[in-house]
Amino acid sequence: MKILVVEDETKTGTYLKQGLIEAGFVVDLTANGLDGLHLALTEAYDLAILDVMLPGIDGWQVLQGIRRAGKDMPVLFLTARDQVEDRVKGLELGADDYLVKPFAFSELLARVRTLLRRGGKAKESELLRASDLELDLLRRRVNRAGKRIDLTAKEFALLELLLRRQGEVLPRSLIASQVWDMNFDSDTNVIEVAIKRLRVKIDDGFEPKLIRTVRGMGYVLEVID
């Protein structure tokens, strides 16, 4: 699942992004309200975490822009402003939850998962499938042919990316930025190693094979009869 974080405090933003990535989410982070609104309107996110006080435009305006565009993704406000009127304003504008700084990451993660469970999407959209492979986004489970497959957080994020864009050849640079949050370095083999390990778990002993290498281009997950 993909989360947008709009937070102008560098330390807090980095802490949030790292924690959410380790929990298995794909995360985009920006420190500017205008950039946050642009991302929210042009990319597909399952949830947004917004600070209130932001450069460019504030969190209230970001939320208003999201709702005016008809986007119904859950929005969690994360802010140092703890006055009742602020919390009421956020909820009236269409926020789904409100967490005051300082906070425990475990509480934020619990609230994120609760919002995702009760979000406006149908139950079916919580599952990604290809052939007899099934990835449950909320329960963080993977099964193939009814057999439970245990993945690391990075393997889960990699498989989710491949499933969301199945049939599309994904270059190593895109995989590096989306799963590892890094620029692609041709001298590292981290992606090749991760793909190899994922293949062992997902494809070994099963038919059809789902993950394949497109030489000189990248990797693709698709069902070929």
Please write out the topology.
Blueprint (H helix, E strand, L loop, with lengths): L1 E5 L3 H13 L3 E5 L2 H10 L4 E4 L8 H10 L6 E5 L4 H10 L3 E4 L4 H13 L9 E4 L2 E4 L4 E4 L2 E3 L3 H12 L7 H8 L10 H13 L8 E4 L3 E4 L4
Structural class: alpha/beta
- Outline, from the CA principal axes? elongated
Count of helical stretches: 8
Low-confidence stretches: 120-124
The CATH architecture term of the largest domain is 3-Layer(aba) Sandwich
The beta-strand count equals: 11
| First and last CA, distance | 28 Å
What portion of residues is helical? 25-40%
Features:
8 helices, 2 domains, alpha/beta, 5-stranded parallel beta sheet, elongated, single chain, Arc Repressor Mutant, subunit A, 225 residues, 4-stranded antiparallel beta sheet, Rossmann fold, 11 strands
Describe the structure.
With 225 residues, the protein is of the alpha/beta class. It has 2 domains: 116 residues, Response regulator (Rossmann fold, 3-Layer(aba) Sandwich), CATH 3.40.50; 98 residues, Arc Repressor Mutant, subunit A, CATH 1.10.10.10. It has 8 helices and 11 strands. The strands form 3 sheets. Strands 2-1-3-4-5 form a 5-stranded parallel β-sheet, sandwiched between helices. A 4-stranded antiparallel β-sheet has the order 6-7-8-9, covered by helices on one side. A two-stranded antiparallel ribbon has the order 10-11. Strand 6 and strand 7 form a beta hairpin.
